[in-house]
From TrEMBL, chains A, B:
It comes from the Bacteria. Gene3D superfamilies: 3.30.420.40. InterPro entries: ATPase_BadF, ATPase_NBD, Euk-type_GlcNAc_Kinase. Residues 70-89 are annotated as: Disordered. Residues 126-296 form the ATPase BadF/BadG/BcrA/BcrD type domain. This is BadF/BadG/BcrA/BcrD ATPase family protein. Pfam families: BcrAD_BadFG.
């Protein structure tokens, strides 16, 4: 992120809006601190983009939002290198790149672009799917690549920023999210209940661990059937499964399956790309039984991944600097809109 | 249901409360008509048993409930054999057997027994899990047997009415219900989305059929993730899978899996019983690819099922007549409470 001083040192702003919050970072000659605000608010009309833009504007002007703002500290920059976090009060941003989860599912993405452009007043505004920002952040370049993100959910994305833009999975734990923490936790609870019932393919180790975490099995259905936080509750069981994989063959098989599923999604997202960079992100990759299974499957296909270099916020900042420094970035009507 | 005229011809009343409604039938010397009312109402305090008892009382006294009652017509009895459906107006019932789905999950089953006993005023009152009533109805006897019910959900139950009372599965589609219509529909949608994404084990036939039924895949997650009617929506996809099984190998494998899962649950419920009668009930059994797979798995285990003889209401009536005619039926603190 340091590199040579850019030839056009206008301030750029990167924003990443995800389930866990809104994160914002500015960059003039060096990266500023990462500022945060609460994340997506979903009202009757869907995601409230205007409220998010107002939060981002407040972060830019004052460095905080009422009741919610915080400073994570600068990434890749020492304390003395920090720049003022409020460029709007003094200068108009050259570029804003707004990365947002759920962008693909919004009916009117052009309206999002207008709202962000008007609210933050940059000379150039980009609205981008968090899949694209995550890919750029993880691979560290705007070029052929694919990434699979294995958090609570799981989704893979691959693109050459030209003809191929391919999302794989991300359907939620009921219909997919193969290899996600929610899917692994769900499979773990299923194996636990099969042991409880005396059915084949059960795991008494997982049954014991899950009872310690969640209480008696009779309570489990109401926790995960139709509650809004069912994915998070299921994902909370995944650490039991990865922890048991060393000694319990059923848990080991579930972790192997998760890693294989993630590799399949990643390979499919990359299929057809010319020498793509491959990466995997997300908390589940910290579990060796899953990560190793993923790498084995990639090796079988003659592929390998590189360590993920950064986050979706890093990717958004990368896109913003590219647009500032070259005057152009690739566009796509669903994934990457520029004004 | 006909048989010799009982030696003590007091009127007995059977009630079965399920998701699809409350059904009530009386029996003196012959079965009366089946009367119906709306089913379980779940309030803040759980199932409203008192309201259900009031509905049953109204059916007994007047033959209908306000706005909801209906007569299905007598089962196993011609029109001339019908008895008056309102014994409470003239005589006190000898026995009431109250079968209810969800009984196992109620904290205070003794309170249910009190409420039913006081509300309907029989000399003897029995409250029974619909698993037990369904077993007696399906096998036609109060003796060693097991039944698997494959409707929207799937649960197996086996008992000798003495030392073994075993429920298997019934955990809901997120955690189990293996072999249910919801589980089969969910697996079908997963296979459809894998085809959509270009992943292994997908089915383009199911993708095409599911798009016709539900619209574009992007709409599917919100239908089935956290909505209260997700099980019914998923079960609605099952007919697509069973219909495709003749020509699509993925659909055929899913139906084979469903039948095998149902057989495994049934065999486990019956394990340890002495010469148990085995039966299977529920709408999914009407699909030959599922029923045939179930029977193949049973045959591998040296077992076979008999055709289901009747419903949970029939089972409740059987229990009621047994208590009236012999003065005793088996008891169990969770499954079968008698006062």
């Amino acid at each position: 992120m340091s590199g040579p001083v850019p030839s056009r040192p206008g301030t750029v702003v990167a924003v990443d809006v995800g389930g866990s919050g809104l994160r914002l970072q500015t960059y003039a000659v060096r990266p500023g601190p990462v500022l945060t605000a609460p994340g997506v608010r979903v009202g009757a009309a869907g995601i409230d983009v205007a409220a998010l833009v107002a939060d981002a504007r407040s972060l830019l002007v004052t460095g905080a939002v009422a009741g919610g703002g915080a400073t994570e500290g600068a990434e890749g920059a020492g304390g003395d290198d920090r720049v003022d976090g409020s460029p709007c009060s003094t200068t108009r941003p050259e570029v804003v790149v707004w990365s947002m989860r759920g962008l693909l599912f919004l009916a009117d993405r052009a309206e999002v672009l207008r709202t962000v452009a008007e609210g933050l007043g940059a000379r150039r505004t980009v609205v981008v799917s968090d899949a694209v920002a995550g890919l750029v952040g993880a691979t560290g370049h705007i070029g052929p690549g694919a990434v699979v993100a294995a958090g609570t959910g799981a989704v893979a994305f691959g693109t050459d920023f030209d003809r191929q833009w391919r999302r794989v999975d991300g359907w939620g734990h009921v219909l997919g999210d193969a290899g996600s923490a929610a899917a692994l936790g769900m499979a773990g609870l299923r194996a636990a209940l099969r042991a409880h019932d005396g059915l084949p393919d059960g795991s008494t180790a997982l049954l014991s661990a899950a009872v310690d975490l969640l209480g008696p099995p009779d309570l489990w259905p109401r926790l995960v059937m139709t509650t809004a936080d069912a994915p998070e509750r299921l994902a909370g069981v995944a650490p039991l499964v990865t922890a048991a994989a060393g000694t319990d063959p059923v848990a080991a098989a579930l972790c192997e399956r998760a890693g294989t599923d993630l590799a399949d999604s990643l390979l499919r997202a990359a299929d057809g790309l010319d020498h793509p960079r491959l990466a995997a992100t997300g908390g589940l990759l910290a579990a060796a039984p899953v990560a190793e299974a993923l790498d084995r499957r990639l090796a079988l296909a003659g592929a390998r991944r590189s360590p993920a270099r950064g986050t979706a916020l890093d990717g958004a900042l990368h896109l913003a600097r590219q647009l500032r420094d070259t005057g152009a970035i690739p566009e796509h009507p669903a994934y990457l809109l520029v004004s």
